[in-house]
Amino acid sequence: MIYLDHAATTPVHPRVAEAMHPYLTNVYGNPSSLHGFGREARMGLERARDRIAHILGAEPQTIVFTSGGTEADNMAIIGGAMAQQDRGRHVITSSVEHHAVLHACAHLEQLGFEVTYLPVDETGMVSLEELKQAVRPDTVLVSIMYGNNEVGTIQPIEEIGRFLRERNIVFHTDAVQAFGVMPLNVSELPVDMLSVSAHKINGPKGVGALYLGRKVPIQPHLHGGKQERNRRGGTENLAGIVGFAEAAEIAAREMEERVAKYRQMREAMLAVWREAGIAYHVNGHPERHLPHILNVSFPGVHTETMLMNLDLAGIAAASGSACTSGSLELSHVLQAMCLDDTVMRSAVRFSFGITNTVEEVEQAAQTTADIVKRVAR
């Protein structure tokens, strides 16, 4: 079996599982309890917060733990917009965002907000000029993802952030796919909110975090307790948070090595296809892309046909976001990029991770080429 769907989720690192174990067995107190068991749990929670804050270049009190990237996005967008509705009710995002952002924006529209969905070019890139034109006096929030989860295109976050900061508009970025493979330092990056998730970096599922700048207004969406400095009610997932911190530190230490490895894998895969002489089209920006995501179309081979044949050969890949798996609809990202219909209907996403080797990636590429030669019309 060859797993090439790390953009969907990743296997838990052995050292992460080891770090979590005490918090699944012996350290079982509630972090909000005042007795010794609770204080021990609280120490573990705050150590993890310090570790993740350090990696992001943030202050510990600006880190809010959530149940994952989806909740972090919802908290930022819905909570951020609702907290500022007296200033205005206009929000801007892009047409290629993860559904955690798009559906949160759709919810705001039901609440009476106006949302502008920026178009992208054929590489999946947002235009800074079009964003500038979309800003209005009543714009209170902009959310643009750091790197796309389907095609890997990296957006001009720094340029967008600088422009919005001059106009005092709150800026959120979904950095779930970028975290662990791109250096993210919020003390230098002009963003007000940033979402990350554990299970994309070999941590456990069900835990994420939102960086929330000190002066950023937010309306809590979960009520029932004073946890996370009154910003998210509910007992924290302590074992998951400890595992998240461990995974984040490992990823930060190994980032340079991992990125070099993923780039080598990408080039190895493309080299096999060039050598095989098959027709293929790489989707996304040719230079500004996440190193671990390769979205490619094989005209003449339907996406579902390719994925089924790969699965039969023991190779796991994807058609796009795991949140839309099983859907027969075309990818909203590829549609927004206005790609040719034959390209959109034959797109497959391969995504690399720490368990992969160059040899097995080459094997998967050769199997893919064999499938194309056998079934392409």
UniProtKB/TrEMBL annotation:
State the source organism's domain of life.
Bacteria
Q: Which InterPro entries match?
A: Aminotrans_V_dom, Aminotrans_V_PyrdxlP_BS, Cysteine_dSase, PyrdxlP-dep_Trfase, PyrdxlP-dep_Trfase_major, PyrdxlP-dep_Trfase_small
Q: Please list the reactions this protein catalyses.
A: (sulfur carrier)-H + L-cysteine = (sulfur carrier)-SH + L-alanine
**Keyword hit for Cytoplasm:** no
Q: Does the keyword Iron-sulfur apply?
A: yes
Sequence ranges assigned to domain Aminotransferase class V in this UniProt record: 2-363
Q: Which cofactor does it need?
A: pyridoxal 5'-phosphate
Q: Which EC number(s) does the record attach to this protein?
A: 2.8.1.7
Extract one GO molecular function annotation from the record: 2 iron, 2 sulfur cluster binding
Where do the coiled-coil regions begin and end? 245-272
Q: Which PANTHER family match?
A: CYSTEINE DESULFURASE, CYSTEINE DESULFURYLASE FAMILY MEMBER
Task: Give the family per the record.
Answer: Belongs to the class-V pyridoxal-phosphate-dependent aminotransferase family. NifS/IscS subfamily.
| Protein name per the record | cysteine desulfurase
Organism of derivation = Brevibacillus aydinogluensis
- Source lineage: Bacteria, Bacillati, Bacillota, Bacilli, Bacillales
